[in-house]
Specification:
Helices cover about 10% and strands about 25% of the residues. The chain starts with 7 loop residues before the first helix and ends with a strand.
Length: about 220
């Protein structure tokens, strides 16, 4: 019997698909606008000014490089909904963040030392049930900012959303978000972390559902 090995890149992407499928939880909404839209937050100064060649949903490795990203692995899954409760298939979910050294990639400013194994930016497209999945690193604080992830979401039948997410308990009135005010609003952009069972040692997992405003 001939056994064909699966390349690590394809295996990682298949794993992300399986994680997205496992995140499906039915949502039943009785009336339109029953779900509150996810709060907006500022884009920040570090949206990529040039997109990398590799823009898939696994930010921990770059196509063609053997070096893996430094940092604690984070598996992030969730779903994207409209305010009337419909899961949004085909939504584009963009994620970008600094590397474990606190540096953003793909910007024109002097970046200093970069982690050569970190992709810095990735894209996922939601499936028929509105599910997405990323493999990245746990965000780290830098300068005066707490640890955070940047997101842009877009869909043909909903308003685009730009926001940021924070590990639970790590946002603050002073440092969290350029456009946030009030603890209640900030808490809606936080996600919990737990050990990622069966994954890499010390890897963590999180889940977050986005809600896009519909006309």
């Amino acid at each position: 019997m001939r056994i064909t090995s699966i390349p690590p890149r394809r295996r990682a992407l298949a794993m992300l698909g399986a994680l997205a499928a496992a995140s499906a939880t039915p949502v039943h909404v009785a009336a339109r606008d029953a779900l509150e839209p996810t709060p907006r937050d500022a884009e920040g100064p570090f949206y990529p000014r040039r997109l990398p060649a590799d823009i898939d949903a696994d930010l921990t490795r770059i196509e063609g490089r053997a070096t893996l990203a430094r940092g604690e692995i984070l598996y992030l899954t969730g779903r994207v909904f409209a305010t009337d409760g419909r899961p949004l298939a085909g939504a584009k979910v963009e994620l970008w963040q600094c590397d474990s050294l606190g540096r953003y990639h793909h910007v024109d400013d002097d970046p200093g030392v970069l982690d050569p194994g970190f992709q810095g930016y990735g894209v996922a497209t939601t499936d028929a049930h509105g599910r997405y999945a990323f493999k990245t690193i746990r965000p780290v604080p830098y300068g005066g900012r707490p640890a955070h992830l940047h997101f842009k979401l877009s869909h043909a039948s909903a308003q685009a959303l730009t926001t940021q997410l924070y590990p639970r308990g790590e946002s603050s009135e002073r440092g969290a978000g350029f456009g946030l005010s009030g603890r209640q609003t900030r808490s809606r952009l936080e996600f919990g972390l737990e050990p990622a069972a069966g994954r890499e040692a010390s890897a963590v997992a999180a889940s977050y559902d986005f809600v896009l405003r519909t006309p």
